Amino acid sequence: MTNEEILSGLAEIVNEVAGVETSEITRDKSFVDDLDIDSLSMVEIAVQVEDRFGSKVPDEDLANLRTVGDAVDYVAKHT
Amino acid sequence: MTPQLQQNPIVAGARIRGLGSVQPEQVVTNHDIAASGVETNDEWIRDRVGIVERRFARPDESLVDMASDAGAKALADAGLAPSEIDAVLVATCTMPSQIPNASAQVAHRIGVEASPAFDVNAACAGFCYGLGTAADMIRAGSAGNVLVIGAEKLTDWVDPNDRSTCIIFADGAGAVVVGAATGDEAAGIGPIAAGSAGDLAETIVVPDRSSFIYQEGQAVFRWATTKISPVAVQAIERAGLTPGDIDVLVPHQANLRIVEAMAKRLHAAGARSDMAVADDIIRSGNTSAASIPLAIDHMRNDGRVRSGDIALLVGFGAGLSYAGQVVVLP
User: Among A3, B10, B278, B324, which residue carries the largest CB count within 10 Å?
Assistant: First the structure.
């Protein structure tokens, strides 16, 4: 899977969980500071990422995913 | 040869006969908590857990007081006298001390003399475990009518300055009378679907006798939003129903976002769009074992559920333990 495909899938998940426009969801955006996503929504995103891409994101790793780009790279590395 | 021990005749099924609940008078809003010096605010609490206000018991208002009042109300609702009750079960995890239990005192207080009485500690899943135990006791002929009470005084066990827990937990009690289905009546309590995850024991814990409740919110949230919906579906299947048969979903009121996530999964599994979903946490906070009967009673008072409705109850919490069943509302 290409990074573009991961980004597009991740954007759909973030849109569904947190209602953020998919066009807003770009690599450089911070989940917390730019997209206003809280820790519980991050858990919901992690659960859906696992369902969709098959990459488990444990809480300790989730805490390190600051930006959308971090999450895309994490999925790319763990699928 | 070992003698065959005589057994009680098996009873076809049990039903909920009556319902009652009590809450302390003192209403505590999010603004009240923020004003007490805890670093939090109304918007943050509403966003994260969905609570607007909750009830705190007075220091002199005990768990046994609340449990007894709720039990007496359920008896009155069922139209039964204390002498007609054969056992009293109290689901709780917040007695001020481990000994004695709550149930014997509650039975005495209500006037159910020399009643079989025991507490059930499965934390927030306690009410569903108690209800399942009562239904099984009735089916096995061990009791004719059982009073099941979920009661908690969580404020005794919460650090009023810990903003991760003091905004969530609250006090209250709810009770049901369970009796045998008679004559042509169908069974009104489905088989329990239950289990535990002791590997996650440390995620909700009172570490020692002098400590308060500690909770790893994120880990519990992940567990509750992923592992509990399948239990709910299993409870529906064990009752011989489909998600489309459920009139009202009453999950333990842990967090409004967990409730919403469960409702979403059930809708995806075929639940009707007009299925009522309990959201009592908004006004009552998280009252652990009391939350399910409190929610049902409040929904009944508000006209959101009626007698004969098919309700799916799902409890989950510390242990970690979980249990659910389908019931017909009284």
Answer: B324
Please give the ipTM for the structure prediction. 0.86
pLDDT in tens, B271-325: 999 999 999 999 999 999 999 999 999 999 999 999 999 999 999 999 999 999 9
Q: Kindly indicate whether the domain formed by A3-77 is annotated with CATH number 1.25.40.10.
A: no
SS3 of B117-151:
EEEECCHHHHHHHHHHHHHHHHHCCCCCEEEEEEE
Q: Rounded to two decimals, what is the model's pTM?
A: 0.94
Chain B residue whose CA is closest to A39: B218
* Yes or no, beta carbons of A38 and B257 under 8 Å apart: no
- Provide the token pair at B238: 């064990």
Cα dihedral B239, B243, B247, B253 sign: positive
The torsion region of residue B44 among left (phi > 0), alpha (psi -120 to 50) and beta comes to alpha
Judging contacts by C-beta atoms under 8 Å, the chain A residues touching residue B222 are 43, 46-47, 59
Strand partners, B152: B172
- Identify the CATH number of the domain defined by range B193-328: 3.40.47.10
Whose CA is closest to B137, among B323, B18, B20, B11? B11
